[in-house]
Amino acid sequence: MPTALITGASQGLGRALAADLAADGWRLVLDARTAADLDEAAATLAPRAAEVVAIAGDVTDAGHRAELAATVGDRLDLLALNASTLGTSPLPPLAAYDLDALRMVLETNTVAPLALTQLLLPALRAARGRILAMSSDAAVAAYEGWGGYGASKAALDQLANVLAAEEPDLRVYAVDPGDMRTAMHAAAYPGEDISDRPEPATVVPALRRLAFGDLPSGRYVAADLLPEPAGERVEAVRP
Q: Hey, what domains does the chain have and what are their CATH numbers?
């Protein structure tokens, strides 16, 4: 059975992707920082998935990453690097950005994804697997207040770009999912109504095109991969 490891899977886009793969009967290894939220998500997904293993922890912790890799085993078909931190909220200008806070953003959004990928490369190579690194338009555009988060995602984009060149047997994607109705977006705009943003599940069809299609490694914007023709669903098979 195919196996996916999804970080940040207790809510938002990570949970939406996990629910979609569960419907296809995947084995899921799920990570999130809050055990109660992760356990609730796993219990909801378990009846449809082949297996769900929920491991709560922080991706910046080396011991937690080692536990995730050990649980995955010898083959990994899909690694979704979705766990992220926004950093300081409200978003500060770079002139006032606390450097310790910036280091934590970079550790969570850039260093930890690479560290986890390094551990999982043997399993990914065995399955000729795929990596989805969740990026942001803040990685390529200049938005006031988004300097720390955007810099971390720009670095993640380049890590994915170079990894694709170094691992030609894998498909490595950086994907910008766009604005979504998530807790992170709510924290970015405290006090504002974000109900006009689309639900994370609306982005999943774009992720399926990367997970199961024949697109080459690279950086993609989810909106450019949507919409699919009405009623069409990319099947969970690879050429």
A: 3-225 (3.40.50.720)
